[in-house]
Automatic annotation (TrEMBL):
One Pfam family of this chain: DUF1996
Protein name, per record: DUF1996 domain-containing protein
Domain DUF1996: 37-287
UniProt entry keywords in alphabetical sequence: Signal
High-level lineage: Eukaryota, Fungi, Dikarya, Ascomycota, Pezizomycotina
Signal peptide residue numbers: 1-22
Species assigned in the record: Massarina eburnea CBS 473.64
């Protein structure tokens, strides 16, 4: 309900393309779609399943903390703010036809960002989305910081409880922000499926990574970032809430006659998951100098006075070459990586 209130506010803001702030909200075009994962499968080409990637163009097969500097090695970013060379990625959505073949589902830009090729909308918040004051103090991520949210092997509700707020929205129209579900929507969604990835917001204050890319961060002791939950003593440092929104344009797959006869829904993740519980996202921090911290300290809501922006045309131009070189766009008999869902 609170998100609906904010969506109403965005309805006013978005068409003007005013970046909303210290609640930061900005679009990033796709930079590549390929089977790489330099966090979980660093150095491995190809990685097990397909990802859609945005951000700085230093994205590569290997991105070791010690030797890979996202800021120095990038010459452009697909994001609106030119000081953000971070990389963000998620799995890719496919439609499974009745004859068993798979087709990659395109992504679409949100209102106010029309023309952006694929990609996502990224948020960094000091307080809950609906809180226009954004007064709380948060500590921006440190150089080298990275994390993973979600688990690609999860396939049931009990497991999914390990994570909070990884959700699906069946969009009836551009403004739909509720309800949110933990599984793929069961009915066709006229305006597509929005997928939200909210990352943990408490940090141990020491490690920029951990072996499973999760243990150095934590959720609040109780509730969520939005409900103002306190960080646990083990992870006392309050981070900004990082939220990724991806809109999958399912329009061409919405004919119920093409859906499975058993009444199930036809969408699957590139990892082979047909439930939705395996949803996950990866983040490699790469903001230049202290630009993110400075911005968050500004506690503004509708302006980003300290940040530089670029046009959507420039965002679209910042792509990363395909280093895997495999067919991801035909009707495929198996998902990339020989995966069958
Ligand atoms: C990716 O890494 C390879 C090997 O280190 C390097 O030759 C190449 O230039 C890198 N690509 C980008 C886009 O940085
Ligand atoms: C499978 O179904 C899809 C969707 O109807 C169709 O486009 C494709 O050509 C079919 N492939 C085969 C091998 O029948």
């Amino acid at each position: 309900m609170k998100r609906t209130t904010f969506a109403a506010a965005l309805g006013v803001l978005a068409p003007l393309f005013v970046p909303a702030n210290a609640l930061l909200r900005f679009g990033c075009a796709k930079s590549s779609v390929q089977r790489l994962d330099p966090l979980v499968n660093n150095g491995q080409n190809p990685s097990p399943h397909l990802h859609q990637i945005i951000g700085g163009n230093s994205f590569n097969v290997s991105m070791d903390i010690a030797s890979h500097d996202l800021v120095k090695e990038s010459t452009c970013t697909s994001c609106q703010f030119t000081e953000d060379f971070s990389n963000y990625w998620t799995a890719v959505l496919f439609f499974k036809a009745k004859n068993g073949t798979y087709k990659r589902v395109p992504q679409r830009a949100q209102s106010g960002m029309e023309g952006t090729q694929g990609g996502m909308v990224v948020y960094y918040m000091s307080d809950a989305l609906f809180d226009t004051a954004q007064k709380s103090t948060v500590t921006a991520f440190k150089p080298g910081f990275r994390m993973l949210v979600g688990n690609v092997n999860y396939n049931n509700r009990e497991q999914a409880r390990d994570f909070r707020q990884l959700t699906y929205i069946c969009m009836q129209n551009e403004g739909t922000r509720a309800p949110e579900s933990l599984t793929f929507p069961k009915q066709p969604c006229p305006s597509g499926i929005m997928i939200n990835h909210r990352f943990p917001t408490c940090w141990d204050g020491k490690n920029v990574d951990s072996p499973n890319h999760q243990d150095h961060v934590s959720y609040p002791e109780t509730g969520t970032f939005e409900s103002g939950g306190k960080c646990p003593d083990t992870h006392p440092v309050r981070l900004p809430q990082l939220l990724l929104e991806t809109v999958w344009d399912t329009k061409t797959f919405n004919n119920k006659a093409d859906w499975p006869a058993d009444g199930s829904q036809p969408f699957v993740w590139s990892s082979g998951d047909a439930t939705g519980y395996a949803t996950h996202a990866d983040y490699l921090f790469g903001w230049k100098d202290d630009s993110l911290q400075k911005h968050l300290d500004g506690h503004t809501y509708v302006t980003a006075p300290t940040l530089k922006t670029q046009s959507i045309a420039q965002q679209n131009k910042c792509s990363v070459q395909d280093m895997v070189k495999e067919d991801i766009d035909s009707w495929l008999s198996k998902l990339p990586g020989d995966i069958v869902a």
